Amino acid sequence: MSTTYETRYASSPHETKQMDTEALRKNFLIERLFEIDKISLVYTHYDRYIAGGVLPKSKSLSLATIDALKAPYFLERRELGIINIGGPGVVTVNGEAYALGFKEALYVGKGNEQVTFASNEPQNPAKFYLNSAPAHHTYPTKKVTKAEAEVVELGSLETANHRVINKLLVAGVVETCQLQMGMTELKTGSVWNTMPAHTHDRRMEVYCYFEVPEGQSVCHFMGQPQETRHIWMQNEQAVISPPWSIHAGAATANYTFIWGMAGENMDYGDMDACAITELK
């Protein structure tokens, strides 16, 4: 089969603070997003979110339903966000082809029965990063480039967090039910993301780190503000962030990450800030 998936169950703050390194990684880290000619998915019980990757090299791949959905096709009751972090490729939705270049996004609405992925150049295959959430309404499929994103520049080199936030699949750019996705690019010399840290109890989040230079790593911080934990991550890996958890990171070089989130609130600014000096 070209589609594989695993299920991750939700953990409370009490359970999580008892976890050792192995348990934290098993519950929250997604180590293998991209496997050649496969669709790899993780179904999490935090807001029924799905994150995964597609790497079509020698053939096109179709997004098939999985047993956990109990649905005749994947998007019967779900919406889908896609960001390409590899070579040029094509996503075909119910017969309509959408060319996706590097760092370009596509929103696919509920009710689309057929979604396929292909690479233009097998020697430089596309890497389609996927996020999906339950949907109650059908919105049109729409491609979004970086030029069409809502862009915000934050931080400074002095605090090692000078970064550009590209809001790709958010209200004001594309209509969605609850899924939101974007991409944050750190400037040379900056390594901290989402600092000062925050939580948002009404939605969960998944981070996908990429453009991490060879031989470098990212340290992702999670947990309640006064009970933090860390997970060391490598290039093209993702991490699940529960609603009660901070989600911040620092690396040994600058990098890029994709954030995706879903829940009952669509207000990007809905968050509870945590003072840096109060983190423990």
UniProtKB/TrEMBL annotation:
<keyword id="KW-0413">Isomerase</keyword>
<dbReference type="GO" id="GO:0016853">
    <property type="term" value="F:isomerase activity"/>
</dbReference>
<comment type="similarity">
    <text>Belongs to the KduI family.</text>
</comment>
<protein>
    <recommendedName>
        <fullName>4-deoxy-L-threo-5-hexosulose-uronate ketol-isomerase</fullName>
        <ecNumber>5.3.1.17</ecNumber>
    </recommendedName>
</protein>
<dbReference type="InterPro" id="IPR007045">
    <property type="entry name" value="KduI"/>
</dbReference>
<feature type="binding site">
    <location>
        <position position="247"/>
    </location>
    <ligand>
        <name>Zn(2+)</name>
    </ligand>
</feature>
<keyword id="KW-0479">Metal-binding</keyword>
<dbReference type="InterPro" id="IPR021120">
    <property type="entry name" value="KduI/IolB_isomerase"/>
</dbReference>
<comment type="function">
    <text>Catalyzes the isomerization of 5-dehydro-4-deoxy-D-glucuronate to 3-deoxy-D-glycero-2,5-hexodiulosonate.</text>
</comment>
<keyword id="KW-0862">Zinc</keyword>
<feature type="binding site">
    <location>
        <position position="200"/>
    </location>
    <ligand>
        <name>Zn(2+)</name>
    </ligand>
</feature>
<feature type="binding site">
    <location>
        <position position="198"/>
    </location>
    <ligand>
        <name>Zn(2+)</name>
    </ligand>
</feature>
<dbReference type="Pfam" id="PF04962">
    <property type="entry name" value="KduI"/>
</dbReference>
<dbReference type="InterPro" id="IPR027449">
    <property type="entry name" value="KduI_N"/>
</dbReference>
<dbReference type="InterPro" id="IPR011051">
    <property type="entry name" value="RmlC_Cupin_sf"/>
</dbReference>
<comment type="pathway">
    <text>Glycan metabolism; pectin degradation; 2-dehydro-3-deoxy-D-gluconate from pectin: step 4/5.</text>
</comment>
<feature type="binding site">
    <location>
        <position position="205"/>
    </location>
    <ligand>
        <name>Zn(2+)</name>
    </ligand>
</feature>
<dbReference type="InterPro" id="IPR014710">
    <property type="entry name" value="RmlC-like_jellyroll"/>
</dbReference>
